[in-house]
Write a structure and sequence with these properties.
The strands form two sheets. A six-stranded parallel beta sheet has the order 7-6-5-9-8-10, with helices on both faces. The protein has a four-stranded mixed beta sheet with strand order 1-4-2-3. It is an alpha/beta fold. The two termini are 35 Å apart. The chain contains ten helices and ten strands. The radius of gyration is 20 Å and the shape is elongated.
Length: 264
């Protein structure tokens, strides 16, 4: 078991059903960046009058041409209906990243929890990662809960659904990506001891079992986050966030700082 994860190709694929979110932050994000993805917003007229934030969302939606349905009854928030989610294509993603000097992808090895998936997507989008890969079966997909947890970040971050996550990782290795997996044991090193990979895939496993043995064999480098407290585990979304912070470049010291004794 991975102690850092102990918490409970083809064409682009599309989810079959529309999704819903009542997250104001998610609706604001989608309205600002992908308003065409919103089908309608439902709101209580009374709530719209009392809540200036919701009123502003409705005004922005109207300006963007999004249908706003008002009623005399309803909850204390809004409900946004989103068009079926469209997954990105692995081949297209590889081509898009071909000439990019640095690239960071996240591969989820059958992650189960929508909250963890959403939190990881939120962090990945915020830190500038280039996308997330998920398997078609036996793992979490983009759901309403993921929209809420990611505050809409899944709309501005490529999410690729693949039939076989191992085969997808092999293809990325062929495209000069280095595969970094979370693990424990003598072969695992702290993230800062890893080489400065220009193209990297961070692999995160299930909440209870970590990375599967078959996927672990595909990893070029194994990392673990040193823990000093009595609690010897991290939620998978927290472990993933720390690794993204490091490998996206945000957490790496600059060459000038790294070579400057005065900075230590």
């Amino acid at each position: 078991m991975n102690r850092h994860q102990q918490n409970n190709p083809g064409r682009p694929q599309s989810a079959k059903e529309s999704l819903e979110t009542n997250s104001l932050s998610a609706v604001e994000h989608i309205l600002s960046h992908r308003p065409d993805r919103l089908k309608r917003i439902s709101v209580s007229a009374t709530v719209e009058q009392k809540n200036t934030r919701i009123a502003a969302i409705c005004a922005q939606a109207k300006q963007a041409g999004v249908q706003v349905d008002r009623s005399s009854t309803g909850g204390e928030s809004i409900k946004a209906t989103i068009s079926p989610f469209e997954y990105s294509n692995l081949k297209d993603m590889i081509e898009k990243l071909a000439d990019k000097p640095r690239a960071v992808l996240i591969a989820l090895d059958h992650l189960q929890d929508p909250q963890n998936f959403g939190a990881l997507a939120r962090t990945a989008e915020a830190l500038g990662a280039d996308g997330i890969l998920i398997p078609k079966d036996r793992g979490v997909t983009v759901t309403s809960g993921v929209y809420n947890a990611s505050v809409g970040a899944v709309e501005t971050l490529p999410i690729v659904m693949v039939t076989n996550i191992g085969e997808a990782i092999r293809k990325l290795k062929d495209e000069r990506f280095w595969i970094v997996g979370t693990a424990i044991g003598k072969d695992a090193k702290p993230p800062w001891e890893a080489p400065d990979f220009e193209r990297v895939v961070i692999v995160l496993g299930t909440e209870l079992e970590g990375i599967s043995p078959g996927i672990e064999k595909l990893c070029d480098w194994q990392v673990e986050i040193p823990l000093k407290g009595m609690v010897q585990s991290l939620n998978v979304s927290v472990a993933g966030a720390l690794l993204m912070y490091h490998f996206c470049g945000t957490g790496r010291p600059s060459e000038k700082t790294a070579n400057n004794p005065a900075s230590s």
